[in-house]
Amino acid sequence: MMRLFKRGSDATRLFFYPSTFLFYLFFALLTSITPLSTVHAQSMQSLQLVPSTIGGGTGGTSTGIVTLSAPAPAGGAIIQLDSSNPELAASVRQITVPAGQTGANFIVATNALYRRYSGLAFTASISAASPLGQDRVSATLNVTAQARPSETVYAPPNSAEGPRCGAGERGLLFKGETGILWNCARGTNATCTFVQECTRGCQSRPLNGSKSQDVCATSGVVPIVLDPRSMGGGNPGAGALQLSSGAPAGSVGAVSTSSLVAAPPQSQNSVDMSFTTGATRLPFKLLTAAVSGIKFAPMRGEVVVPQRQSDGSIFYQSRSARAWVAVLPGTPPPARLLSLKLDSASIKGGEPTFGRTCIDQLFPAPEVGSIALTVTSSHPDVADVLASPMNQGTDCRTFTVDTKAVASDTTATITAQLGTQALNSPLRLTAAAGAKQVNSYFLDPNIVIGGSPSQATLVLDGIAPPSGFLVTLTSNSTLVTIPGSVTVPSGNDRLSFTIETQPVSADVVVNLQASPAAAGLVSQLILKAAAGSPTLTSLAVNPTSVTGGTTSTGTVTLSAAASTSTPVSLASNSSAALVPSSVTIAAGATTAQFVVNSTSVTANTTATLSATLGGTGNDTVTKIAALTVTPGTQPPPGALAAPSLLSPAADARFSVGQTINFDWSDVAGARAYVIQVDDSNTFAAPLILNQSGLTASLYSTSTLPVGRPYWRVRAIDASGNPGAWSAVRQIRIEN
Known about the structure:
mainly beta; globular
C-alpha cells in the first residue's frame, strides 16, 4: 500500500490501475478493523420459550432461552431480540451471552389488558438474532383468550339510546373503553352492554331521531398509530393521528393516556390538536420514563371531522381507537433540559407570576430513580421561586414566583438547572408607587384556640418611603395583644408580626383594623374555647350477623372531632371474627371504619369486639359490640380448602389506575382459581370482576373503579368442582 504512493505520478498510477488500488484498500480495511463481539462461529442454534402458552389477561411472563452452537468468544456474544407483537408480548432489546457460555435467558412479559374485549387468543413471534441479522431463530408465544370483563358501564346522562362508541372520560359516564362499541339504554343510571371491539376504530354517526347509530369502522386507516411500538424507558417515541382522506377545515384530534410511563409531553398541546386542512396525518411526540421492568402503556386517540348535513347543520364525526406502547427497562439516556417559560416576563413588583420548565423524559417512579430539576432566582429577596414537586409521569415542573415591591425597576433571572444544563429567563419587576394605605391584612391562621398565637401580615398598596410607613393597629377586644403601631421599613411593601391571644370559655370573634386603609378593611380572628380531649362514645358493627367467610363493617365514634390523628385499639375474643389491631380517626373527624373478617363456623358463634381509647388508668375508655357468625353452605366432602388471602391487606388504599396485585395461598389439588371483586360483600350479580381460569395464585389489575370493593377467591379441582370461598376483604380505590 505504501509503495503505491512513494514514487512520482501517484495520481496517474491510481487512475490507470484502479483494480490494484481497490485490492490494497480492501486489504487494509480488513486488517485494520477490530472484530466485533458478535456471533461468528457461534451460530444461533435455538430459541425456546418456557412456558410457551400464557393465560390471557394474567399478565404472566415466559422465560426465553437462547442457545448458541458453540461457546461465546471473549467479550461475550450480543443477541438482538424482537417481538412481532410488542403490544401483547415484549422483551428487552438485547442480551449478552457471557464469554465461554452457550446460552442466556431473558423474560418475555405479556400485557394483561391487551384487547381484553375481543374474546380472541393471540400469538407473538419472539426472535433472537446476531447483531447484523445474518443468523436468526424464533419461537411462538401463545396467549389464550381471556374472559370479557364483567364490569358495568353506565350511559352518559340524558343521552340517546342505541349503539355508541366508548371514549373513556370524553364519552361514557363511567368505564366506556375507547375503541369499543356499546349498546346503551337511556335514563338515570342506565347501563350499556358490550357489542363489538372495533379493530379499525369506533366511528360516531348522526342520531336517527332519538336513536344513536355509531358503528365499528370497516375500512380506512386506524385513527392512531405509534412508532416505535416498544422503546427503552427514557427514550422518545412518536405517533400520529390519521384520517383516510384530506382533513376539512376545523378537523381536530386528541391523544390521552392514564399511563405514568409513557405520555405526550405537557409542552405539546395534545388535548386539542388541529389538522392542517387537507392533511391526513397529525403527528405527536411521545415521552417515556425509566422503568425497572417491562410496562405496557395505552394511548387513546380520537379524530373529529366536521361534516355538513343535508339540512345545513354540522355533525362532528369522531373516530377513536387505542394503541399500546411497551416501555422497556435499561439504562436511560441522560435527561435534557428543553424549555423554561414564564407566564409574564414583566410584572409590577409585589404581584406573582407563574412558570414551567420541561425536560425530554417523564419523571420516573421513586423506586426507579429521580431527576434533579431545580428552579432558582438570582434575587430571591424580591423574586422568590416556589416550585412544586415534580410528579411521577410528568415532564414539566411548575413554579410560582412570589415578588415584592421594588423602589426602582429590577430584573431577576429565573434559572432552571439540570446537572450542567441551565436555561435562563429574565423577569422584570417594575417599580411600585409610594404607599398611601394598607391594601390587605392577612391572619394565619385566622381561627385559633384561645391562648394560641396567630401571625398577621400587612401589605401596602405601594412601597414604604425612606422614612418607613407607619401603620396604626386597633382591636375591639382585650383578649388579643397587638402593638399599637408598626412601621413598614423603607423600600418594602409588607410586614409581619405576632398576635397573642387569651384563653376563652366560649367562641369569640375579634375585629382587627389597620389605618390608613381602604374603608371597611377589617380582619377577623376567631378564638375557640379549648375543649377536653374527645372520648370514645361507641363501637358498632353493620351488619350485626354475617355468614362465615363474609365481612361486616365496624365503626368507632368520638364525642368530638379529633384534634390530631387518634388511634383506637381493636380486639376480638373469637377467631370467628378478625379485626385489625387498631383504626385511626383522622384529625377533624369523629368516626372511623374498619373491616371485620369472619371465618367459616359449624355453629352460630357470637364474637365480642372491643375498641379502646387511652392508655392505662382512669382515662381509658373501652366500648364493645357483638357480631354473630352463622354457618354457611358447607362444601361437599373432599372439596378443596379455602385459600388464605395474603395481600392486599384489609382496607389497603390504591389510586385509580394503580396496579393491584391480589395474592393468596396455594390450595392442594387446585387446578385453577376464581377471583371475584364486587361493591357488596354478598357478591350479587353483576360483579365488578369475576375472573376464572387463573392457573397461578396471583392476579393483577389496574382497572378497578373508585370505591371500597370486596374480594374473595376459591379454588377449582381437576374435575371442575369448586372449593370453599376464602374470607372476604375490603380495599379502597381513590382518586
